[in-house]
Amino acid sequence: MSPTSVAVLIGGPSAEHDVSLVSGRAIAAALLERGHQVEGWLIGLDGRWWRLPDSALDRQLPPTAYDDPAALGAEGPLPSGRALHQIRAQQPTPIVFIALHGPFGEDGTVQALCESADLVYTGARVAASAIGMDKALFKRITRALGMPVVPWIELSAAEWKQDPAGAQRRIAEFASSLPDPRVVVKPTRLGSSVGISIVHKPGDPEYAGGAVVEALSYGDSVLVEAYLDRARELEMSVLGNSELDLESYGPGEIFPGHEFYDYTAKYSDGVSRTTDRPDVDPALRSQIHDIARGAYLAIGAEGFARVDFLVDKEGTLYLNEINTIPGFTPISLFPVLCATGGYDFGAISEKIVELALARAADRPARTLTRADLP
C-alpha cells in the first residue's frame, strides 16, 4: 500500500476510554512502522478533542497521562467541529482511523461527524455502527433472520423508575421460564463487559435490583439474558466491505479466569487465556463461519468486526453479539485470528485503511445542484 496520511482517533467519552488508548496507540505504531504518516487525536472523557504530538503516542505512557493532554503538549481543547475541520483542511486529507470503543466511537456518532465533514473513515458506517452497538437491535434483527440467539428480555430506565417492583417481577418470571434460573444483566449499548452482572437469585430484589441499577448507570436500557452455565466463548474475525470480498478467520476461544469474561478478566495480565486453535468440530466450525458472515452482512457492516458466540454444554451454538470496532490490545483475539489468514498486526491495520479507501472510491462523486431538485 502506498504511504497514506492517517488520523487515529483514541480515547473517547465512554467507559471504554482506557481500552481505546491501548488499541489506538498500537494501531498508530503499526501504521508508522509501515511507512504511513500518522497523527493522533485524543477525545477526552469530556468529549473535547486534542491534537497529539508524536511523543504522546508512546505506548509506554499510562492511561492516566492522558487525563491532562496539555501536559503532553497536545493542541486543544477543540470542539468536534473545529477538530474535524482541521483534519479536513490538511493536504493530503488524512484517512480517519476510528480506534474508539463504546458509545460515541462505536455507535454511529463519530461516524456521522466524519460523514458531515466529508472525511473517509474506517469501519462500519452510521447505521451498521448503531445496530452493532445496540445489543437489543442486533438480537432482534438476527433472530428475525433465523440466527440462534440467547433468550432475553429488555428493560428500560423509565420502566425501572416507574415500577421497580414490577420490573423485578418480570425478571423473576423470565428467569423461572429458563432451564437454569440464573440470568445475565448487561447495559444494552456498551462493550468490554462493563456493567455486566450474573444474577444467581433473580427472584431476590436485592440481587436483581443491584444488577439492574449497575447496568443502568451506563445507559438507559438493559438486557436480561439467560445464563449458559460453563458455555464456551468463541470469537470470529471478519473483514470486507461486501459479500464479494468477505474474509472470515477463526474461531478463537476464550478461557475466562473469572465466572465470566468481565473487565478485569479481559485486561489483567495472567487472569484469562485465549487460543486461536480451539478444538472445534468441523461442522460447528462451518456453522460459525456462516453465521458470522451472515450477521456481518445483515447489519451492513463494512471494514472489519468481531463476531462472538456461545456454545452451551449440550453443544448448541448461539450468536452473542458483534463488535464493529474490536480491540487491538495485547490480549485481543481479532488481530490474532487475522494473523491465521496471513495478516500480521501491521498488515491488518493497513488492510482496514485499504478497505476504507476502497469504499470511498465507490462513492458517487456527483454534487447536487439546483437543477437536480424537483
Explain how this protein is built.
With 374 residues, the chain is α+β, with helices and mostly antiparallel strands. 35% of the residues lie in helices and 22% in strands. The protein has twelve helices and 14 strands. A five-stranded mixed β-sheet has the order 4-3-2-1-5, with helices on both faces. The chain has a five-stranded antiparallel β-sheet with strand order 12-11-10-13-14. A hairpin with a 5-residue loop joins strand 2 and strand 3 (49-52).
Write a brief structural summary:
This protein has 374 residues and is α+β, with helices and mostly antiparallel strands.
From the structure above, extract its key features.
5-stranded mixed sheet, 14 strands, 374 residues, alpha+beta
SSE diagram, text form:
Elements: E1 5-11, H1 17-33, E2 37-43, E3 49-52, E4 75-78, H2 80-89, E5 95-98, H3 109-116, H4 126-133, H5 135-144, E6 152-156, H6 157-162, H7 164-176, E7 183-187, E8 197-199, H8 205-216, E9 221-226, E10 232-240, E11 247-255, H9 263-267, E12 273-275, H10 282-298, E13 303-311, E14 317-323, H11 333-339, H12 345-361
Parallel strand pairs: 1-2, 1-5
Antiparallel strand pairs: 2-3, 3-4, 6-9, 7-8, 7-9, 10-11, 10-13, 11-12, 13-14
Residue ranges: pLDDT <50 for 5 or more in a row? none
Strand content: 15-25%
What structural category do the secondary elements indicate? alpha+beta
Radius of gyration: 21 Å
Q: Encode the helix/strand succession as letters.
A: EHEEEHEHHHEHHEEHEEEHEHEEHH
Give me the number of helical elements. 12
Mean pLDDT: 93
**First-to-last CA distance:** 43 Å
Number of strands: 14
Into which percent range does the helicity of residues fall? Answer: 25-40%
Gross geometry: globular
Major sheet, described briefly?
5 strands, mixed
